[in-house]
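Project standup — Tuesday

K.O.: blocked on the structure for the chain from last sprint. Re-posting the sequence here as requested.
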Amino acid sequence: MFSGAITAIVTPFRDGNIDEKAFRDLINFQINGGISGIVPCGTTGESATLSHKEHERVIDICVDEVGGRIPVIAGTGSNSTDEAIRLTRHAKEAGADAALLITPYYNKPTQKGLYEHYAAVAAACDIPQILYNVPGRTGVNMSEKTVTSLAKIDTIVGIKEASGDLVKCSYIVRDTDDDFCLLSGEDALNLPILCVGGTGAISVTANILPDKVSAMIAAWLGGDVSAAQNIHFELLEVNEVMFVETNPIPVKTALSMMGKINEEFKLPLCEITDANREKLSLVLKKYGCI
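H.V.: unblocked you, prediction finished:
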């Protein structure tokens, strides 16, 4: 159902508030760069520190500015099932095309608990839903068996996989229907995940290089393996530097250096170190971003 390069977009702030103009400009920068979808309020959008009011406003702005040009997949996950249901209902009411739901974090549910969590959200909210597995962030790793069981629920249409486990990705593709989408959640593995049957990626790097990330995935999906591989190799260094510190610190710093947003975070995220700022600057200059 969902494919191509999809941007996990940042949330720009100015003086502690959502910078609506910068956000709308970023959305258009992404669309003009050929992006196939946008995810507001994901990890990169600092969802964990947005207030509920801010969370809803970011989704509202994104849906409004996109205006149906590409899909909006709203981040609506939570470590509370009730809260995930409320956020997912709002995403549907706002006009989002789908919801992205991270595995509940901190409370470390069992595989049975994960299944029941997602099944409850699916039963309560009639909107396409994409699972999101990122154990390095959440402390819980959803098994391929849990994924394939959840894939049988009509509302659950795909997964963003950021475990780095290509064997798990292979099992998911093998053991789910053809219309269940596997999306890479780690830029360095976008091409390898495509190779085992992925349909696209939800990308951090696309915030700064939407055209390159889009071109790589489009080349692969179009059958031009050599072009996709060449762009994958070209992006290695920038993909790496995007995670030189906790995401989204490097990508927001990069966008600030590019003059697109104010360099501002919600605590406990903070400014990048001087050493990593210099490293980031050198890479951005190499790619012609600054």
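K.O.: great, moving the ticket to review. The beta strands are 4-8, 13-14, 17-18, 37-39, 73-75, 98-102, 129-133, 156-161, 181-184, 200-203. The domain at 4-222 is CATH 3.20.20.70 (TIM Barrel).
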